Amino acid sequence: MTHQGQTTGQVRAVSSENASYPARAEVPVGKLCARFFHRDIRLAIRSTGQWLNPLLFFVIVVSLFPLGIGPGPNMLATIAPGVLWVSALLAMMLSLDTMFAHDYRDGTLEQMVVSGYPLSVIVIGKVLAHWVTSGLPLVLLSPLLGLMMQLPTDAYGVLILSLLLGTLSLSFIGAIGAALTVSISQSGVLLSLLVLPLTVPVLIFGSGAVSAVATGLEASAHVSLLAAIMALSVSLAPVAIAGAIRIGVAASR
Amino acid sequence: MYRFADRLAPWLAGLCVLCLVAGLYLGLVVAPADYEQGDSYRIIYIHVPAAWMSMFVYVVMATSSAVFLIWRLKIADMVALASAPIGAAFTAVALLTGSFWGKPMWGTWWIWDARLTSELLLLFLYLGYLALRGALETPQSASKAAAILAIVGVVNIPIIHFSVEWWNTLHQPATITKFDKPSMHISMLRPLLLMVLAFQLLYFHNLMVRVRALILQRENRASWVAELAEKNHV
Predict the structure, then answer these.
(1) B110 with B205, same domain?
(2) Which residue in B53, B181, B194, B222 has the fewest CB atoms around it within 10 Å?
(3) For A244, which of B125, B145, B171 is closest by C-beta distance?
C-alpha cells in the first residue's frame, strides 16, 4: 500500500512470465526485510483492533484467575508466573490469524510470492512487525499484571526478559501455523490446535525462568534455553513459513 | 503399487496373527509373574509395543512427507495420510494402557511424568495433523501443507521431549517418576519382542489396506480401476 510504484512494477514483471524479471529492481536483503516491516507496522497502527484486542484479552484472562481461584496473595504469588505466561501465549495465539489473512484476501500475498524476491526474507519482516505490534505490547504490560498477581519484586526483570525472548519465538512458530491455514476461512481454532503443542517448550522455560527467580533460584539456565529456542525458530521457521505460504497461495488459484 | 499392497496385505495379516498369538500366549500364560508387580506387569505386552509404534509411525509419517515434498511421489503422501490415524490410535492405546497400569502401581490414573506428558503432546500433534488435513479442501494443498506440518513436528519432537523432561526434574524431583527396572528375564523378554514384531506387522498390514483404498479413491477415473470393479462385480 505504501509502495505503490514498486507493486505495479512487480505486476508487470509477472505478466512477462520470465525467469529473469526485467522490471525487478535489485534490493539488498536487509532493505527488503525492512520495507515489509515498515509497511506492516503502518497497517497495524491504522487498525487499532489488531494490536489492542490481544492486549485487552491478555489483561482480562489474567484478571479472571484471581476470580476463579481465589484472591489469597500467597496462592496468587505461586501461580503468577504460570498464569502470566499462559495468558500471554493465548493472547499471541489470538493475534496470529490476522498475520497473513488480510494480505491473502486482497491478493498482496500472491504478489509477494510471484515478485521474485526471496519470500523467506519478506516473511521475516512481516513476522517481526507482527511481533512488535502484538508481542511487544504484552511484554510492556506484563509488569503491571505481575503487580496485580502479587509477583515478588525481584522477578520482574526475568519476567520481561523471558517474555521478550519467548513472544518472539511464539511469533515465528505461530507464523508457520498461520501460513499453513491461510487459505482456510475461520481458521482460528484449527490454528491454535496446530500451534499450541509446538509452543510447549517456550512455555516451560519461560514460566520456569520466572518461577525460579520468584522462589530465589538462578534463572540463567532457563533463559539460555529460551534464547536458544528463539535463535532456532528465527532461523529455521521462515523457510517453513515461506513454503507454507506458497502452498496456500497456489491452493486459491 | 496397488498390486504390491494387495498381495502383501494378507501375508502381513497372517504373520501378524501368528506373532500376536505366540506373543500373547508366551506373555500371558508361560511367562512367570513379576515378584514385585504380580500379574499386572503383563500389560507391558500391549503398552510397550504401542508406545514404540506411536513414535515409529510419526517418524515414518515425517519421512514420507519429506519424500513427498522433495520428489513429489504421490504414494509417499498416501503413506503419510494412511499412517496418521494408525499412529494416533497407537498413541491413545499407549496412554490408556499406561493409565490402567498406573492405577494399581502408582495409585493414580495420571501423573505429569515426563514420558506421559510428551506422549500426550505427541497425540496432540497427530490430531492437529489430521485436523489440518480435514480442513483444507483441495487435496494437493492439503497434502503439501500437512507434509510441512509433519516435518515441523518431527523437528520439534526432541525439543518437546527434552524440555518436558527438564521441566519435570526441575519442578518435582521427589515423585515416583523413576523406578528401578530390573533387567528382564528371558522368559519375559521373548514375548515382549514377539509382541513388538506383531505390532509392527499390524501397522504395515493396516498401512497396506489403507493405501490400497487411497489409491482406488484417487485413481477412480483410471481404466484399470473400472476393470477391477467390473471383475469383482462392484
Answers:
(1) no
(2) B181
(3) B145
Q: Does B93 lie in the same domain as B152?
A: yes
Range of the domain at B123: 41-172
**Closest Cβ opposite residue B136 in set A183, A200, A236:** A183
- Summarised one tens digit per residue, pLDDT across range B186-210 is 777 788 888 888 898 889 888 988 9
Least confident of A160-169, B9-18, B71-80, B92-101: B9-18
Q: B132 and B66: one domain?
A: yes
Q: Which residue has the cell 506428558?
A: B117
Work out the average pLDDT over A182-201: 88
DSSP string, A180-232: HTTTSSS-HHHHHHHHGGGGHHHHHHHHHHHHHHHTT---HHHHHHHHHHHHH
- Single out the residue of A36, A45, A225 nearest to residue A134, CA to CA: A45
Return the amino acid letter for B195.
M
Name which of A197, A240, A250 is nearest B128 (Cβ-Cβ).
A197
- Dump pLDDT digits (tens) for A96-148: 988 898 889 888 899 888 888 889 999 999 999 999 999 999 999 999 999 98
The answer to whether A168 faces chain B, any CB pair under 8 Å, is no
ipTM above 0.85, yes or no: no
Domain co-membership, B198 together with B127: no
Instruction: Verify whether the Cβ–Cβ distance A201 to B160 is below 8 Å.
Output: yes
Per-position DSSP letters for A99-157, written without gaps between them? HHHHHHHTTHHHHHHHTSS-HHHHHHHHHHHHIIIIIHHHHHHHHHHHHHTT--GGGHH
DSSP secondary-structure letter at B180? Answer: -
- Give the residue from A180, A189, A226 with the most B CB atoms within 10 Å of its CB, the best one to mutate: A180
Residue A87 lies in a domain: yes
CA distance A112 to chain B (A): 19
Residue B35 lies in a domain: no
Q: Tell me which residue has cell 506387522.
A: B201
Would residue A125 count as lying in a domain? yes
* pLDDT surpasses 50 at A11: no
